[in-house]
Amino acid sequence: MIQKKCILFILLLLSAGTYAQVKVTDAASALIKRVVPNHSSQFILEEISAPESAKDRFEIESRKGKIVLRAANGTAFASALYFYLTEYAHCQITWNGTNLNLPKVLPVLKEKVSRNSPYDYRYYLNYCTFSYSMSWWDWERWEKEIDWMAMHGINMPLAITGQEYTWYHVYKDMGFSDKDMSEFFSGPAFFGWFYMGNLDAWGGPLPMSWINNHKDLQLKIVQRERELGMKPVLPAFTGHVPAAFKKKYPAAKLKTANWTNGFADTYILDADDPMYAEVGRKFLQKQTEVYGTDHLYSADTFNENEPPTDDPAYLTKLGKGIYENMKQVDTAATWIMQGWLFYSDKKFWKQPQIEALLKDVPNDKMIILDLATEIEPVWKTTNAFHGKQWIWNMLHNFGGNLSIFGRIDGVANNPALALKDPKSGNLRGIGLTMEAIEQTPILYELMTSHTWRDTPIDLKEWMPFYLRNRYGQPNAKANAAWDIVSKTAFNGKTIRDGAESIIVGRPTLDSTTVWTRTKLNYKAQDLLPAWKLMVEASDAVKNSDGFQYDLIDISRQVLANYAAPLQRTWVKAYRDKDLKAFRSSSKAYLTLISDMDTLLATRKDFLLGPWIADARKWGTTAQEKALYEMNARDLVTLWGDKESPLHEYSNRQWSGLLNDFYRVRWQKYFAMLDKALVDGKEPDFDGFTAQIKDWEWNWVNTQKPYPVKATGDPVSVARKYFKNYNSTITKSYQ
Question: Range of 169's domain?
């Protein structure tokens, strides 16, 4: 019986990732029909043999008025399609604006075009993305994203949806109860940190309907990704176990870990313990049985938690144990590890510790994600990860905050420079590891442009071409505006990630709060000419979807920046005890928030309503809908209970949230300061903080629908606020 089970599992491993095979050209043809349904008949697909290396290639040419695409897999076909659409038809597909204004008859090519990728791996996603952006996605939304991934060359996506189904059945088979599981699984909005072992149970209890529904969703995700030639990265065991583990297995070597962000301890099973290998084996076997495998496994130990000792011998044994745990089930296993810990905890992870963790894992069986290479290239200080394969990644966004920010010059140049650097070791790919998506599309188009080239990108050539595709026609004023944005907001200097507006911070007389970091990497007044140019450009390109998004986003950024001098005005009036000036300036501050809400309401990209409505759709009962709404509200505001130190980490400048949450808080704060001025007494700031925490927690637990459709014309509203604010803002900076 045991022998039969072993044979069955070996067959399962051999077939994993190949079940329900779809012909390469059929998968690519289906994608083309989804993307350009009215023109799909004008494309001819021809399969070519795969390159000897893992690196992809494609060819494009015209034949008798039709466009011939040649490739060896679905991702290369999709990339060929997108290359044609952008280079020859001047189209663009982004999260925030799409231009597919194609002529009835597609443009022909004068000669054949061939492209080769210098990168074996094009990685996508971060554990956090699954929470900050993807918490409530259904198959329809996932299908669009997978198409986007394929067209942008992604062939190695993280695929962690539905792992709670695997864990549920593993632990049930081990004798754990539903109560044990309810005290283990977090709510859906917090899965990213539950998966990484940072927290248990918060936002739960997780309904069984969610567990089953997301198993079905994950099956669709990995099936489609494999059809298109991608190799999904699935999770592996990293030691995180339920709290009930210590009762069921009292002899187990357990250590507590605390994320220090206001959550209770979690329990980590030591890799030395025999149970570690047993649990890890059960998990990978069950996961492979359900989802198949492509032999790529994500495992992040001690994510923002330190190991119990910095002894290199311990760390070497730990690293080897984690890899061997994968290998015992899948001899072809490759360990994928986010290198964030080497960046975020430099105090602990010095060179002896990094080398120790990595050294006993075979070089060809491990891939390190240099998670924030555009911010700080860890590869340069680790001897290129001591011979391990590694991937150059752009992190860019933290927490889903909305801020026009980035290191555009570094993104344009540094991947190709690293590729050619003799010290870059075993560099094998590029990737996108942002904490959240659906913002700043220009940087993601730029980064993925490296997929099919090995030289730096000249922004002076690339930017006008990008804008022509985005807006449907060349526009000199738009080009000039974005040149300013590149030199200001995108200069990437002095700060790690994008600045937020004080508007979204918990009310204070200060210019910043714990997570509302308001320091800009440029002079705010230097962005104003870009706003003016975009408004002037609107006459010519106002019907462009991408232009409308960009106009609103730049307008939002200018108004968000203006909150800083406006705050200084009412703070000064309060401290001068000038009641009239205080009332006037605080009223202007509240009006600014309301005006931003109205501005952002013109684009669905900036609405709170869909985030909450999509969360509630997953509920099968009123109780479940309420739970998911609470998760959705909590993540973007308190990020925990009312005492959470992470409040505002995931702040969003969204219509609905601005008026209903941020504005109300400031209104209450101003009422307290006004009363203090009238009474001639010092305000009770501590009392206010306690009251506002109660109010915030009540808001998180309230149920209320918000608009899910945009209202108002983006261009007209932006013009209106430019007229109302530009002169006043200009004077405020003088």
Answer: 121-476
